[in-house]
Each structure stands twice: as C-alpha cells, then as structure tokens.
Amino acid sequence: MKIAVLTSGGDAPAMNAAIRAITRVGIHRNCEVYGVFGGFQGILDQQIHELNSRSVSRILHRGGTFLTTGRSEEFKTETGQKKAAKILTDRGFDALIAIGGDGTMRGLAALSQHWNGKLIGLPGTIDNDLYGTDYTIGFDTAVNNALEALDKIRDTAEAFSRTFLVEVMGRHAGFIAFHVGVATGASAILMPETRTTIEELAQTVMKAKERAKSSVLVVVAEGDELGNADTIGKALSVRIGEKCRVSVLGYIQRGGNPTHFDRLLATKLGAFSIECLLSGQSGGLVGEVNGELVMTPFEETWTKKKPLDQWLLGLLSELSS
Ligand code: F6P
C-alpha cells in the first residue's frame, strides 16, 4: 500500500511522534510511506517525498511538525480538491493520512467526494475540540505549558495580592482554559462553553478578596464571548476599583517538547491508523475513547460536540472557596 501523510492547520506537540509511528509501522508492514510537506497545499505543489525509517529519527521529542503545515486556500475550493485527487491518483497513492484539527477533518471529508483512495484523520490540535477522541494530540503539552506559566504568575500575584487575568488559547473551545484553571486553582474560568457576565465575575473576585485570598487568578479562553482578557480586564478593573493585571500566554503554549502522554497517544494513534488501513477500515478520525482505539466518521468530529466534564465544572466555586 502506498500511503501519504501530512499535517495541516495549527501545529501541535507530538505531531512528529505520530508521523514517526505511521512511517515506521507502515514500512515494517510493507507499505511505502510518503511525507507531504506544507499541509494540503503540499499535495497541490507536489511537495511529496518518500520517507524511510531514518527520515523520522530524532523527531519523537520535538514540538512543531517536521513535515511543516499550512492552511491552504486553494484546497478549500472544489477545483483545488479535484486537483489534489488527480495528483494522488496519478502518483499511485492508495491512502492519505492527515493529522490536524476540525479544518483538517473537513478537508478530508471534502476530498472524499473527489478521490476514492482511503482517507484517515488523526486528531492533532492543542484545542482538544474534536469529537471522537477523549484527548487530541498536543493538548496535554499545551496545558502543561500554560500551567507552568500560571504557577509563575501566581507567585508574583501573591507577592502583591493582585488580581490577574490570564488568556490562554482556544478560539472556539475552553478545554485548555478549563483544565489549566482547575489545575491552578483559578477563582474563575471564562470560556465559550459557559456564560459569565462582568457583574458575576466582579462578585466572584470581590468575594475571594473578602475571604482574604492572597491573589486571584482568572483564566480566560481567547474565544470567550465577553472578549479577550484585555477587554475583560479593563471592565473588571473599573467595576472592582482595582487595576487588574493581564497576561496573554499566546503561542508559547503550542511549542516545546511533548509530554509523555502526548507522545504515547500520538504513537498509538499513528500505529492504529496503519492497522486500520491494512484491515480495510478508513473514512474517519482515529481516536481514543475510554481507553479504546476507535474510528469516528469525519463529519461527526465537528457536528457533534465533546462536552466539558460537567461534574468538575460544577465544583469550581467550591474548589476556589
Ligand atoms: O491550534 C489551535 C489554535 O491554537 C487556536 O487556539 C488559536 O486560536 C489558533 O490556533 C491560532 O493559530 P494561528 O494563528 O496559527 O491561526
């Protein structure tokens, strides 16, 4: 079987571990494995090169993606998708594995309308916002990156008894904010999945101060409906009569060496994708749900919503009391 692999959309730590597993397990099981450089655009530009086991040496521990990534405008068009299908057919490919987030899964679903090769998606995004897997590749590392930063901010916040708003990534989802917020003992977590008014936030902060808390941390997902941390921080400062400090963590969350959890998840899903292809299964996202490796049709990965842990969510005010 001749297999192409690519990474698309925002990079995520341990994408490299997935590429390594796909390449090595694939070659070991008599497949030819090709790397597409630059995401879906790389198919259109024919940046497709054969990989061997040594091509993926020394990448297991590295963040980013050695295949590089992209967000191709051309591939979003039907003409682009048809062109990609023709290139894959002309070059004799049987299968394509793409690692990325919801945009990547949409790209695979679109390509399936024009190409009859086998398609498999791997969940690679720090946002963890794909249905069909409990965790996405890169999420754990991003949360740990943010955690480290939050712990440092807590030190300086305590030294001055300050209120801090810390913005984390998550344009459409609050998984990073939620996990980091719980793990750092935030007084409030603002995310797209929940609704909080400035007045409610002000009450939470003022009550924390009344209880003699030495610092107050508020974690804000960048996609929160109230706006970004800067906007919310200004409104909150006016309401509580204290200048709130704001830190935006930004891209630092997306880089760095992946955690053991992400390396293992990526390795399992990479190897599983090859096993799926060789046993005739394709047309979906491979993921891990309740400890089992499963495949979910592409469309469900973005039409169905993976919920936040409602029990833990309900405990927030008790935990930060
Ligand atoms: O990878 C997902 C994500 O980190 C989002 O949380 C964020 O909004 C977005 O990517 C930003 O990435 P870029 O600037 O590369 O589009």
Any overview of this molecule?
This protein is α/β, with parallel strands linked by helices. The chain has two domains: 183 residues, Rossmann fold; 113 residues, Rossmann fold (3-Layer(aba) Sandwich), CATH 3.40.50. 41% of the residues lie in helices and 18% in strands. Strands 3-2-1-4-5-10-11 form a seven-stranded mixed β-sheet, sandwiched between helices. It is elongated, with a radius of gyration of 21 Å. The N and C termini lie far apart (58 Å). The model has no long low-confidence stretch (mean pLDDT 97). The structure holds 6-O-phosphono-beta-D-fructofuranose. 6-O-phosphono-beta-D-fructofuranose binds next to loops. 6-O-phosphono-beta-D-fructofuranose (F6P) binds next to loops.
Please report the number of helical segments: 12
Order of helices and strands: EHEHEHEHEHEHEHEHEHEEHHH
The domain tally reads 2
The CATH class designation of the largest domain is Alpha Beta
**CATH topology name of the largest domain:** Rossmann fold
What small molecules does this complex bind?
6-O-phosphono-beta-D-fructofuranose
Report the radius of gyration as a whole number of Å.
21 Å
SS class: alpha/beta
User: Strand fraction band?
Assistant: 15-25%
Count every beta strand, where a strand is a DSSP E run of 2 or more residues: 11
